[in-house]
UniProtKB/TrEMBL annotation:
Highest taxon of the lineage: Bacteria
Official protein name in the record: Transcriptional regulator, PaaX family
Source species: Klenkia taihuensis
Domain Transcriptional repressor PaaX-like central Cas2-like: from-to ranges: 103-172
Domain Transcriptional repressor PaaX-like C-terminal positions: 191-264
Domain Transcriptional repressor PaaX-like N-terminal stretches: 31-80
Biological processes annotated in GO: DNA-templated transcription
Coiled coil ranges: none
PANTHER family in the cross-refs: PHENYLACETIC ACID REGULATOR-RELATED TRANSCRIPTIONAL REPRESSOR, TRANSCRIPTIONAL REPRESSOR PAAX
Length: 274
């Protein structure tokens, strides 16, 4: 593929594979995928074969993929763990209004992690950021909408009892726009939307339909991670989230048929489907 343009997110190989599996494999009743299909996909996205093989090995060790062997060919299928991960992500990826929440509805969270557990502090912060929280001040986090905090922290079994969360609404006189600017880098979020719209209004050239569709999904997921649904009504009349959503829907609808056909051809060439 062409070199990344300014502002383009740098996607890890695992992120690319997760997007591919979530958009083209989940619920499609496909046979296990030969390693060649996955490695060719990553190669089209600029990932070297050695890095691709290492990614497949790590995903297998982490219980995200199940590895089988047919003759000399390794093949991979989804595990219950990755199935759950992909379904949770799809709830927002497929939402018709991924950047909208009920007006004035927020989740406020406070947590405290002992200084001796910096590793846990890092993992808690990463989980909260992924769930859409922004830091207001030390130990106090805010997210738009109502967040299932128990589900967010459930994978961190050693974080039990460290956080308290409340459903919150701003009182009259609260400067919500100032609060949002304090908790999030709003100009960076705006720039991420602008980049996405500019890039995917006319899909970039990528070698292979599956790779192009996978890259769209990875860029979209990155944007969803960047903007948890900041309240556009407090950020000016030209807040670009609706434009990003429209561009994503059009690009996905345009690119999906060719990507699915390309995957079927790859599986047929590998002798996995008739």
């Amino acid at each position: 593929m062409d070199g990344p343009e300014d502002g383009a997110p740098a996607h890890r190989p695992q992120t690319l594979l997760l997007n591919f599996l979530g958009s083209l494999v989940l619920d499609e009743d496909l046979p296990p995928l030969p390693s060649s299909v996955l490695l060719d996909l990553l190669a089209d996205l600029g990932v070297a074969e050695a890095a691709g093989r290492a990614t497949l090995q790590r995903m297998t060790q982490r219980g995200l993929l199940e590895r089988g062997q047919v003759g000399r060919t390794a093949e991979y299928s989804l595990t219950p763990r990755i199935d759950s991960v992909l379904r949770r992500a799809d709830q927002r990826v497929s939402s018709p209004t991924p950047f909208e929440h009920p007006a004035g509805e927020w989740t406020l969270l406070s947590y405290s992690v002992p200084e001796s557990r910096r590793d846990l502090r890092h993992r808690v912060r990463a989980a909260l950021t992924w769930a859409g929280f922004g830091g207001v001040r030390d130990g106090l986090w805010l997210a738009p909408g109502t967040v299932d905090v128990a589900a967010v922290l459930a994978p961190l079994t050693d974080a039990a009892g460290l956080a308290d969360a409340f459903s919150a609404r701003p009182l009259p006189g609260t400067d919500v726009a100032a609060l949002v600017h304090r908790a999030w880098d709003v100009p960076a979020v705006h720039d991420a939307h602008t980049w996405f719209v500019r890039t995917w209004r006319r899909p970039p050239r990528v070698a292979g339909s599956m790779a192009q569709f996978t890259l769209l999904g990875a860029d979209w997921l990155h944007l969803l991670q960047t903007d948890p649904g900041l309240p556009g009504e407090h950020l000016g009349p030209d807040w670009p989230a609706p434009a990003s959503t429209a561009v994503y829907r059009r690009a996905r609808e345009a690119l999906a048929p060719a990507a699915r056909a390309a995957l079927e051809r790859s599986l047929r060439a590998a002798g996995r489907v008739a």
